[in-house]
Amino acid sequence: MHYAPSELVLNDKGQVYHLGLSPDQIADTILLVGDQDRVEMISTFFDSITHKSQHREFVCHTGIYNGKSISAISTGIGTDNIDIVVNELDALVNINLVERSNNATPKSLNLIRIGTCGILQADIPVHSYILSTHALGLDNVGHFYEIESSEIEQEILHEFNSQVDLPNAVIPYFVAANEGLINKLISTRTHEGITVTSSGFYGPQGRELRLKTKTTGLNEQLTNFSFKHHQVTNFEMESSALFAIGRSLGHQCATICLGVANRPKMEFSKGYSSEMLSLIQYVLDRV
């Protein structure tokens, strides 16, 4: 298949358009963060740095940690940015950018999001590590792609729709994280559960300031959702698109977040830089 210049957009250096990266500048294991400053927090742990770049909000540091090549890339906030990041990372490893055709042998990346989140269970303390077993998308990005769902994903989604009332225009989708990466990241320090990915920070996450929302009571419904051993643990803004697009392209995807707010208790962290550094090292030591 040949990709036209209007579809596979490259810059004047022949790099993918938004990330501004070439194939030799990224590792097979990539840590994705929303905040640009968090990239340097990760690379301070590297034994050496082999690449640094920034284009728009997309900062990339690639280096060596305990003998393994790892990249840290900032995505900015939201599933719309994840759509760009995952597609362009895939293009870097699975498309010949000169010939504009697919490589003969597909390559799989490990894409691990390290983020912050709002906790939806009162008994999970602020600064806990929240490991996503699944992502429930309340955004719309996943609906633009041909994504296959497993039987259990369809079953949980059906049960979710029967228990939770969403605004009429919101059509949720449900995707599992990669089991292999979950097994690497899980420990007695983690709390596992369903991560709800919202399309915004305020109304879409049940926050109401001066503008009235249609999500009154949504958080309580999410907190109370239960099906077999599954419960909703947290809110964030990227994982559903990461899991849906990444998995469909053959990549391994996971998310682990630092809980900075407990929504049922209305608590927010008074500062979490040291806790984020600890989470970063926790992830690096396991991947």
In short:
The protein has 287 residues and is an alpha/beta fold. Helix content is 26%, strand content 30%.
**Share of helical residues:** 25-40%
The helix/strand series, from N terminus to C terminus, equals EHEEEHEEEEHEHEHEEHEEH
- Computed over alpha carbons, the radius of gyration is 19 Å
Strand order in the sheet with the most strands: 7-12-10-8-13
β-sheet strand percentage: 25-35%
List the uncertain runs.
Answer: none
Q: Outline, from the CA principal axes?
A: globular
The main sheet comes to: 5 strands, mixed, barrel
State the end-to-end distance.
Answer: 34 Å
Please work out how many helical segments DSSP would assign.
7
Can you walk me through this structure?
The structure is a single chain. This protein is an alpha/beta fold. Helix content is 26%, strand content 30%. It has seven helices and 14 strands. The protein has helices spanning 37-43, 79-94, 151-163, 179-185, 218-224, 239-248, 273-286; strands at 29-33, 48-55, 58-65, 68-74, 95-96, 101-102, 110-119, 129-137, 173-176, 190-197, 226-227, 230-236, 252-262, 267-268. A five-stranded mixed beta barrel has the order 7-12-10-8-13, surrounded by four helices. A two-stranded antiparallel sheet has the order 5-6. Strand 13 and strand 14 form a beta hairpin. The mean pLDDT is 97.
